[in-house]
Amino acid sequence: MSVVTVQLGQCGNQVGQELFGVLCRDSSDAREKRYGDCSRERFFRDGPSEELVARAVLVDMEPKVISQIITKAAKSGKWKYSDKAHFSQKQGSGNNWANGFCVHGPSHEEAIQDLVQKEVEHCDRLSGILTVMSMAGGTGSGTGTYVTQCLRDMYPHSLFLNHVTWPYNTGEVIVQNYNSVLTLSHLYQFSDAILVHENDTVHRICSQLLNIKHISFSDVNKVIAHHLGSVLQPTYTSSLAGLYSRNPIGELLSCLVNHPEYKLLSVYNIPQMSTSSLAYSSFTWPGLLKHLRQMLVADSKMEEGIDWKVCVPATGRTGNERARNSQQLGFNTSLANLLILRGKDVASADAASFKDPGLYTPWLPVEEAFSTWNSTVSFNGYEKAATLVSNSQSLLKPLDYIVGKAWNMFASRAYIHQYTKFGISEEDFLDSFTVLEQVISSYTHF
Amino acid sequence: MTQSVVVQVGQCGNQVGCRFWDLALREHAHVNKKGIYDEALSSFFRNVDPRRSGGSGSDVIGGRIQALKARAVLVDMEEGVVNEILQGPLRDVFDSTQLITDVSGSGNNWAVGHWTYGSMYRDRIVEQVRRVAEQCDCLQSFFLIHSMGGGTGSGLGTFVLKLLEEEFPEVCRLVTSVYPSAEDDVITSPYNSVLAMRELTDHADCVFPVENQSLVEIVNKIRHMAHSGKPSTAIKMDSTIISSQGGVSRVEKPFDGMNNIVANLLLNITSSARFEGSLNMDLNEISMNLVPFPRLHYLVSSLTPLYTLADVSIPTRRLDQMFTDAFSKDHQLIRADPKHSLYLACALMVRGNVQVSDLRRNIERLKPTLPFISWNQEGWKTSLCSVAPVGHTHSLLALANNTCVRPTFVELRERFTKLYRKKAHLHHYLHVDGMEQACFGEALSSLSSLIEEYSQLDAAKGRLTPDVPRLSVAK
User: Fold this and answer.
1) Chain-chain contact of A64 with B138 (C-beta, under 8 angstroms)
2) Which of B138, B293, B381 lies closest to A414 in CB terms?
3) Which residues form the Tubulin/FtsZ GTPase domain (chain A) (predicted)?
4) At what angle do helices A426-444 and A396-411 cross, to 10 degrees?
5) Whole-angstrom Cα distance, residue A266 to residue A338?
């Protein structure tokens, strides 16, 4: 079953291009033919001259980025984007969510829907739709939200995984907090799950783990692509041996999103290191899993500098007590976790430590809260790799931060005239704030 | 890809405009080695087949360059400057229909420029602008270049601004205004400036004020560096900042150095919209990010580095120096010290070989030294364009919405009041049809209320504003 990817805005398109690069390389390097075939079926289709064509639709309101990435993809010689599967206009959204959502979205709704439909028709069976966007700008965030909503209406039985990039805390865009609040509050109403990468976190991974001196956006995007690839590439999800899962997005959602109030997912990945160091390193599953577990517990996205003092609070206390204690101890409570193991000797890996009920909220039995998938094929150059997709409190602080900043700015009504000009009123802002305060409250009082 | 149209009004406006076109041609020639008419060129130029009469465009992107015509309208009520342009090397860049001139000038009288010539040339100006606009596929912004102290640039220029708002309300209006220095030799420049200010506050989307005195000081600094004789400080002579060498015109005229700086400002503002980069910034993003309240749209700009040193590989320290300089008061294009006033928002537009990590490192480093308003502590807008300006490996343009413009406006108001109290020269203005005494009063109060808005924001500086209590929801 196939996944159709919709890349929206500059960030969405740049990340998407790196993602397809990783997926193509991984599928062609795979030593197991079935893995490669499954991956290619999932993300690519055959072009007229036997080259791989990404199952993707590219959307942006101005043309420069799309033409750049189409060229870059074609240069790889291994895969490309379809010549017809892209939509762009001449003038961007100006970092204005209202412009992206209220003006560009409706104007170009039909054209974009057509493109997605054509791509979907190329699939034998559609597993789901992946959207890739940022929330700080105007097109990815505003038009991206509008397009997701339309596609949702068009394919009510399909599954939607929204990948959203959170901006650096210190400005890429001054009104990024407004745009973020509007994006998240709307997406929350009709997305199935929101998978998040934060630029600040990925930047730290690049500098401290990958030792990159002059980090460019391309480096950041490669890390995001690596994480996403390790989640989406073929795995065995059940004990039905020998059969790769045909429904990756569906199974991801049923493992992780049990309750519509809790949709924010984050990714922990280990090991992460520069290719030069990789050549000299070897890993054991116990070592990797021990670090990964503590990364989850202390909410650290890197395997260096983990706070080992944070530990699972004792069970058997009342819900409120637990919540208070957890927050004081810096403990990251999970709602659900999905562990994905890839590589050599994966059968010997023991994930028992992740089944500790102390890790989870008390109202869900551990068998439902925790799942494991695995694959014997090494991923993207790593002999052994473990990825944890987590529905936990990991995004609580960043979300609270964004809402707080946006609220302060809103109190002075700064920049609001730029939004009302295109049709988003103060009332709409208040509604959005309310939705997110509710989400924050839900995640705080697990 | 969008297009922009430049409207240059008055002597100063046309001289700066001229330098802008010269530098733009040079910049594109540097980047575009194959002679193909590409998207970047089309933002400011049309491609015309000179053999076809009427000059109708072979504006197809991807075709060979035949003859480039600027997307511009040149307006002056005296013929001297425009004639010079038509006889100079840029003559082929302009169509005769793009020029609107008269003979007698405005006599440094805002009222003559605004009311007399405004009404006389209104229809012709609308017609010409419309013509140029129709040749654009997707017109995004108007760049108006003028000075504030004279009669034509100031009076007719602001009349044109009003026209642009009426006829093309959806097109962004970005105005570069040259403000007179205190020692300006035009006695009535305070009147002209304040009368023009009101129009700018009411009708412009963004204003980039520039003061002659600052430009003089910057040019002198560069000349000093060139002659100081330190071995490592040889200035690359093809740098676009200081010279027109390599450009179309050969002879350097007085004011050229100063005008070059302003022309560079315009080039750098539009670079991210024209060329590719890892983090693009379009023109509509300038106003979106930097204008939190509609009237407070005066942006202080600074350009660094002003010179490249002879060292070829520039170690990181030098790169960081570029960022530090952008906030020093010596590099600002108006006489103001943004570091000691309050930042409402700041944009950093970087060109050349700079990565996001360099940008972040410098923002982290400089943030503690710069006072930002409480609700916009992280108020930074950034963009990275891969194409560096000619003669440099990298450059930085900082645009700040900062309360340091207030002292400039206060000083302007004082000079105005000095004259107005005595009713000096007033009769020259009141004689003009359409001009009333009330105009002066209204312009003065517009300026005063603008100053007051900045003062109120300033008062918040240094005060620890507690966070506004958040919405509470049911648990």
Assistant:
1) no
2) B293
3) 40-239
4) 150
5) 11
Rounded Cα distance, B215 and B262, in Å: 9
**What pLDDT, on the 0 to 100 scale, is given for residue A318?**
60
- Give residue for tokens 């939200």: A145
Mean pLDDT of A59-82: 91
pLDDT of residue A429: 96
Report CB contact under 8 Å: A64, B1: yes
Token match 């506050």: residue?
A: B201
Contacts with A441 from chain B: Cβ below 8 Å: 473-475
The H or E element containing residue B198 is helix B189-203
Q: Which residues of A touch B384 (CB under 8 A)?
A: 217
Are B379 and A174 in contact (CB < 8 Å)?
yes
Task: Determine which of A140-149, A307-316, A435-444, B232-241 has the lowest per-residue pLDDT on average.
Answer: B232-241
Q: Which residue pairs, CB below 8 angstroms and at least 24 apart, start in B40-43?
A: B40/B1, B40/B274, B40/B275, B41/B65, B41/B68, B42/B1, B42/B3, B42/B137, B43/B1, B43/B2, B43/B3, B43/B4, B43/B270, B43/B273, B43/B274
Helices B283-290 and B256-274 pack at an angle, to 10 degrees, of 100
* Residue from B61, B275, B282, B362 whose CB has the most chain A CBs within 10 Å, to mutate: B282
Give chain B's largest Cα–Cα span: 76
pLDDT per position as a tens digit, B33-87: 888 888 888 889 988 876 665 444 556 777 788 888 999 999 998 888 888 888 8
Per the CB < 8 A criterion, the answer to whether A343 and A377 are in contact is yes
In this prediction the ipTM stands at 0.83
| DSSP, res B89 | T
Structure tokens at B402: 């900062």
Q: Give, in order, the Cα–Cα distances in Å from B473 to each of A263, A324, A438, B353, B406.
A: 19, 18, 6, 48, 42
Across the A:B interface, residue pairs with CB atoms under 8 Å apart total: 141
Q: Do A437 and B355 touch (CB under 8 A)?
A: no
Give the least confident one: A361-365, A401-405, B459-463.
B459-463
Could you give the domains of chain A? 2-266 (3.40.50.1440), 269-395 (3.30.1330.20), 397-445 (no CATH)
Q: If residue A340 lies in a helix (H) or strand (E), which one and from where to where? A: strand A334-343
Rounded Cα distance between B23 and A225, Å, is 41
Q: Helix-strand-coil percent breakdown of chain A, rounded to 5? A: 50, 20, 30
Q: Do A174 and B381 touch (CB under 8 A)?
A: yes
Residue A354's pLDDT is what? 92
Question: Which pTM value belongs to this model?
Answer: 0.89
A417 and B138 in contact by Cβ < 8 A? no
Contact B471 A62 (CB under 8 A): no
Contact B391, B290 (CB under 8 A): no
Query: Distance between CA A180 and CA A200 in Å, rounded?
Result: 15
Q: Is A445 within 8 Å of B475 when comparing Cβ atoms? A: yes
* Chain B residue nearest residue A438, CA to CA: B473
> Residue A168: its chain B contacts at CB < 8 A?
360
Residue A289 CA, distance from chain mean position? 22
> Residue A158's closest CA among A123, A134, A195, A185?
A123
User: Residues A236-287: pLDDT tens digits?
Assistant: 887 666 778 888 899 999 999 988 999 999 999 999 988 888 878 888 999 9
User: Which residues from A are below 8 Å from B137, CB to CB?
Assistant: 90
